[in-house]
Amino acid sequence: MIVAPATFNTVNKWAAGLADNVALGTLCEAAGLGVPVAVLPCVADALAAHPAYRESGDRLRAMGVRFGERYTGEPGPDGLRPEFGWERALDLVEGAA
């Protein structure tokens, strides 16, 4: 299963076990079923520095969730925004299977 792009809100609710919508409920069930899960976070630097986000990442990793590199959406030195990089999620899931 691939979770992308995963926002600050999604990562924190998921780690807390909050299943207040179908997507989060499915992710919470996946943990209990042992489904390989890869996540590509899309979180700005300021939110990624929040203690709750770091703790949520640690909790999800302990559950076997594989994290890809965080996408911030910030322009690079050339002024262009990098592509999201969907193919990274496939590599993560293949490594978990």
Description:
- This protein is mainly alpha-helical.
- The protein is built from 5 helices and 3 strands.
- It has a 3-stranded parallel sheet, sandwiched between helices.
- The longest helix has 12 residues, at 22-33.
- The protein is globular and about 45 Å long.
- The termini are close together.
- The model has no long low-confidence stretch (mean pLDDT 89).
Question: What topology emerges from the helices and strands here?
Answer:
Elements: E1 2-6, H1 8-16, H2 22-33, E2 38-41, H3 45-48, H4 51-62, E3 66-67, H5 87-96
Parallel strand pairs: 1-2, 2-3
How would you classify the quaternary structure? single chain
Count of helical regions: 5
Chain-averaged pLDDT? 89
Question: How do the SSEs run, as a string of H and E?
Answer: EHHEHHEH
Query: Taking Cα atoms only, what radius of gyration do you get, to the nearest Å?
Result: 13 Å
In what range is the share of β-strand residues? Answer: 5-15%
Total strands: 3
Distance between the termini: 10 Å
Largest sheet descriptor: 3 strands, parallel
Query: Into which percent range does the helicity of residues fall?
Result: 40-55%
Secondary structural class: mainly alpha
Shape label = globular
- Poorly predicted parts: none
